[in-house]
Structure formats: structure tokens, C-alpha cells
């Protein structure tokens, strides 16, 4: 079915999909620099810019002069996206146009009349104990195994795994220091298996350095995700690398840790977010339902009257 998207008004800056990013998006680098100055996390700045770039290239329109119709058409063309992903892209693009207005690069926000997709809260999807054992049993590169251990035994996100340095390990206190979302720096107790693995990793510098064009920098988060995901597929373990973080949170809860402790270890600002990551075991749910007693109050009342 042909697209019903209206053409941009005369003078709209359009560009071929193969045009270099620096020619298409003259303000993206400036926006990234502005976010760093405002102390936004590097991952936040990178992912936001990637969304703007994707929108611009797929719509063949300059992100600086894009119209309401361009945005409506782009979101309509991506009806396969989940509500959560759509809401995230909405936030990224809204931040971009808000910044353009702040900097006087445009006077209107084409996102103003769009309705933000509501986020869905799904059940957590941790890998099972058996899957994790199977994953750790397959032959893999030492660095890949350390990535898996960081995700499963410290609950690190792939972006946080990518940025681990030798200096982040405090063997004396048995903790690892992690800079997470919002550039917050927190410590996480080191599992004995991770403490042992740390002895074979560099004492200083990146544990997972980039290669070739990223010499001197750490690996990208997507590269870490690819490495772990490939090991999971080879082991026949379903799901994504994030399932290892889900396993971390769910297993802590199942083993008796209270929700507040799990929140601290997952480094969530809200308990509501922690609840998304942690699954209450089926046997505990069944036990809770089995203990329901609609006659309990009636018996108590009867005993008080006698």
C-alpha cells in the first residue's frame, strides 16, 4: 500500500539516504556535546542521537526542519515497534526538538500534537538456572565469560559491562564500582566467581577495549550485546543478554533478599522499576494463594464472642 504521507513543503531540506551524517545533521555533534556538559550519561547522548539519525535517514528528511507529518508518517511506518520502544523513541525525538528550540535553531516543536505511546509493563524474562549453567558450561573466550559473569552475578547492563576498568575493582572491599544511568556511581559486592575472574583481567584500563577505529576507547554496548548473544545462541539459551540481569534480580528475590535490597543492587531509582525486573517464583505465588482463608475473620469473631 503506498504511503499517504504528505510531501514536505517547498524548501524542506531533503537528502539521500547515503549522505554522510555530518552533512545531514549539522547540529547532532553540538547536541551531544551539550548533553555531556549537562552531565547526561554518554550512553544517553549516543542512543538519542542514533534515534534522530535513524528517523532522518528512513524519512529522507533533515531532522532540523522535519515536520509534524514527517514524524506521524515515520511512527506509522513502524507499527511493528512495541509500545515501550515507541515511547522511548518519542522521548528521544522530543528531547531533540526541545533542544533545537532552546538553541533558537527552530521555533516550533513538531512533536507537540503527537500523542506519546503508553509504555507496557510486561513480565520479566530471566533465563533459568539451567540455561545459565548451560551457558557457563560451553567453551568461550575468557573475556566473553567475564562479560557473562558481570551481567549475571553483578547485574550489569551491557553498556556498563563495556565500560568496566581495572580501577573499578576494589578487591580489598570486594566490590566493583559501576557508573550507571544518570552517571550515578555505586558499588556492587563482588561474587566470589567474579573476584576470581578479576585476578586474570587488567589491573588498569579497559577490560574490554575497542579495536581498530575505536583504539583507546572501550567496546560499544552493542558489541558486548553481540558477543554475549552469540555465546547464548551457541549454548542454545533463549532470550537476550538482558535476561542475565533479569536472572540476577529474580534470583536475589527468590533467595530471600527484600525488594529494597534488590532495588539497590540493580541500581534503580524506583522500586516500581525493580518490580518489572524481578519475578516472584511460581511456588511462592501458589503458596500465597493457598493460604487465603475467607473464614478466618469469621472464626476470630466467633472466638471473641465466646
Would you mind describing this structure in some detail?
The chain folds into two domains: 21-102; 129-287, Orthogonal Bundle (hpI Integrase, Chain A). It has helices at 21-24, 28-37, 42-59, 68-77, 83-102, 129-137, 142-153, 158-162, 192-198, 221-234, 242-254, 259-266, 271-277, 282-290, 296-305, and strands spanning 169-170, 175-179, 185-189. The chain has a three-stranded antiparallel β-sheet, with no helix packed on it. The longest helix has 20 residues, at 83-102. It contains 15 helices and three strands.
List the defining traits of the structure above.
306 residues, 3-stranded antiparallel sheet, disordered N terminus, hpI Integrase, Chain A, 2 domains
CATH topology of the largest domain: hpI Integrase, Chain A
The fourth-level CATH homologous superfamily of the largest domain is: Intergrase catalytic core
Number of individual domains: 2
Terminal-residue CA separation: 77 Å
Poorly predicted sequence stretches spanning 5 or more consecutive residues: 1-24
- For the record, the CATH class of the largest domain is Mainly Alpha
Give the radius of gyration: 24 Å
Mean pLDDT: 83
- CATH level-two architecture of the largest domain: Orthogonal Bundle
